[in-house]
Please model this.
Amino acid sequence: MRSPILLGLLATIGFGVAKVCAVPATIDSDLKGLLSKGASISHDTSVAPRWSEFNPPQPGTIVSVATEDDVAKTVQYCLKKKIPFLAQNGGHGWIDSWHLGKNGVLINLRGLNQITVSADKTKATIGGGSAVKEVIDAVYNADAQILTGNCNCVGVLGAGLGGGYGNLMGIYGFSVDNYLSLNVVLANGSLVTVTPAQKDLWWALRGAGPNFGIVTSAVMKAKPLPKAQNTAWTGALFFTEDKLEQVVQAIEDIKLEAPMNIFLYFATSGAPDYTPTVFVTPFYFGTEAQGKAAFKSFYDIGPYQDTTQVLPQNAWNTGADGFCVKGERKPSWSAGLSHMVPATWRQVFNEFAAFTKNAGTGSSSIVVECYSLDVARSVPADSASFANRDVRFNAIAIAWYPDTSLDAAAQSFGTKTRDLWRSTDGFPSNRTYVNFAYGDEVNDVVYHGSTSRLKQLKKQYDPYNVFNQWFDLA
Model:
């Protein structure tokens, strides 16, 4: 994303098992003999902080791995000792249903952040602890281009395995369409390489990865591209609130071609007034002239401020770096939409304005992400378990505040906003992108037409449901 207080994508993979049979001291002594010299063990959760403190996992032990084999060894140990665990990279997953407690182990993947680009620049090998910014920098500096999410601090594989939206998806499709192979620790603790040859598991991992394993690295498509050509026009167009309906209608009407995407935001002006603000962030992979021509309908509405400029790929996401601030409470609600209805968005704006009158809520936001989908939809819908190719827009409400005193107000704001979106979403049943979901959704809402097959494959690849932290399929 391209706003200093707004979000991008999920970056967490979950794992959980039955009752604990070991204590931290025993875990420490046992694991130290199994792990590589670069690995470490801690009982201080600050070594792997969460983006949101709203109902986060509460592990008693954090294992910071240094190799992919460290992940496998930790999983094997936890399986043997019946210790629940969860693997984490960026810690941005915001669902409210985590159930890892003090008897559990958090596997911190952050040390697996090595990225290499092939000599012909057509593929990149990405470690499971890599952040979006690290991947962009490595590939960009190699004179190549790769699809990633839009927030620098988010774990690139956690976000991608849920589906994987990004600035360049109009050209390359979803992240799940760009993987060539995945290294995965499975439910029996084995570390394996999964390719399209393993048809069922390959299908399941690309859309529901956290239910089937911990992805420790991936090989992903890249494209040779000199730095001078790897630029895009982007930034923000700010509008007065009375033009909201015109902006929403323009989003509904615009035909987003392959180089294009646009986000709509409701944010606040910040201190001291925290006035609700409306802006869009157009994106065009090309020149300023091409971008302004493509988004002429928005200029015709009359923005009062224009911060757009041409930037290299390694700077496209810098506007969202304020979003990377960890801590405080950030429950978030989302809905997939087939249409943007101006009257609905006026009601949503009113809900946002009312909520942000509460002290301490000034970093809250509303966002809708809108991408070119032609290339993504040219891929068969059943090619991966990701099931949202038919969803035009993904809307998210983020309630950001300091402490529990506003939990009830946030819950009211989030559920009312989601209900408003769903009331005119244009779908016969509720739809939500799994990486943006709140956590109270049933499987059919986040996995849609893939649910039945996923449940069957879950019985085959994880018969004891050890991966149960993330929209449980058992």
